[in-house]
Design a protein that fits this description.
Blueprint (H helix, E strand, L loop, with lengths): L1 H18 L6 H20 L11 H8 L11 E4 L4 E3 L21 E4 L4
Antiparallel strand pairs: 1-2, 1-3
The chain binds zinc ion (ZN) (2 copies).
Keywords: Metal-binding, Zinc, Zinc-finger
Protein name: Putative inhibitor of apoptosis
InterPro entries: Znf_RING, Znf_RING/FYVE/PHD
Length: 115
């Protein structure tokens, strides 16, 4: 009798295997792995990274250039955060009384004069 019960049990197990969602589908996993490997290979085959990030320049720019128009020299600082973030034209354009650099609310604008 035991031998007759075993086959149905095996069938149930294989049925469960088919029901398992895609996540555990070995073919799917293998496919993802292949794509991953291809991506890594592509990265390894890339020529040397052409240009570094321009991050080091950003703080310098924000010190000297208006954070709104990015073209005029920033001449007006916000109080209390102290960011010299605005130019003459843009200081009147801010509808929200918040610093465009740090988003801190400000209550006054101070003209900064270079010596
Ligand atoms: Zn401006
Ligand atoms: Zn600020």
């Amino acid at each position: 009798m035991a031998n007759q019960q075993d086959p149905p049990l095996l069938i149930n197990e294989t049925e469960k295997d088919y029901i398992i969602p895609e996540d555990n589908d070995p073919l799917e996993l293998e496919y993802k792995e292949i794509i991953e490997q291809e991506r890594i290979e592509q990265l390894n085959n890339l020529p040397f990274a052409p240009v570094p990030e321009i991050l080091p320049l950003t703080p310098l720019i924000s010190q000297n250039v208006c954070a709104i128009c990015r073209s005029s020299r920033s001449t007006h600082a916000l109080i209390p955060c102290g960011h010299r973030a605005l130019c003459e034209e843009c200081k009147g354009l801010l509808e929200q009384q918040r610093c465009p650099i740090c988003a801190q609310p400000f209550f006054s604008i101070l003209r900064i004069w270079d010596a």
